[in-house]
Amino acid sequence: MARPARFTADDILDGAARALLSIGPSLTIADIARAIEGPSGSIYHRFASREELLGRLWLRSIGRFHEDLLEAMALPDPWAAIAASARCVPDFCRRHPAQARSMLLFSRARLLEAGPASLREDARGVNDAIDEAQVDLAQRAYGAEADARLEVLSVAIRQSPYGITRPFIGREMPPWLDDAVVAASLAIARLEVRPD
C-alpha cells in the first residue's frame, strides 16, 4: 500500500511563495524544499519541473486576485465598481505580499508561448471571467457606447492600476497609492472617445 503524500500541491505552492518572497525569482527547488521542510522528491512528485511549479504558483495567485477583482467589478453602481476595481490592486498586493510577488513571475502571453504544455490550457482561460465581467461593467457604465469604450475601460481598471502598483510590490506600499490608482482609473474611464 502506497504511503500517503506528506505535502499537498498547495503546501508546496505556499512554500514556493514564501521562498520567492525571501529569495526572489532565482529561487531553486532546493530553496522550496527548505521552505516546506521536506525533500526535493516530494516536490518533483507533484510538479515535473521548477517552471511548471512556478507557473502553477502564478496561475493560483492570479486566480485568487481575480476573486477580489470580480467582487469589485460586480458592485451595483458602475462607477463605484470602477473605483473599487482600481483600489483592489494595491489592496490585494498589500494584504497578500507573497501572492503579489508571485504575479510578477509570468504573463499569460509568456506561458502560452513558452510555458510548459501542462499549463497552456489554464493560461489560455485565466482571464475569461474578468473579460466577461468587464463587458458587463462597460454596458452598465456606458450603455450604447459600451463596445466603443471597452478598451478604455480595460486600461482604466486593469492596466493602469497594475502599472501604478507594480513598482511598489516587494516593498511597503504607501497609503496614498489607493487614491492614486482610483483617481487615474476614473479619469481614464471618463475620457471622451472620439471616432478615428
Automatic annotation (TrEMBL):
Keywords: DNA-binding
Gene3D superfamilies tied to this protein: Tetracycline Repressor, domain 2
Entry keyword DNA-binding: yes
SUPFAM superfamilies in the record: Homeodomain-like (SSF46689)
GO MF annotation list: DNA binding
Ranges where the HTH tetR-type domain occurs: 12-56
Keyword Coiled coil part of the UniProt annotation: no
Classification via InterPro entries: Homeodomain-like_sf, HTH_TetR
Protein name: TetR/AcrR family transcriptional regulator
Organism of derivation: Brachybacterium endophyticum
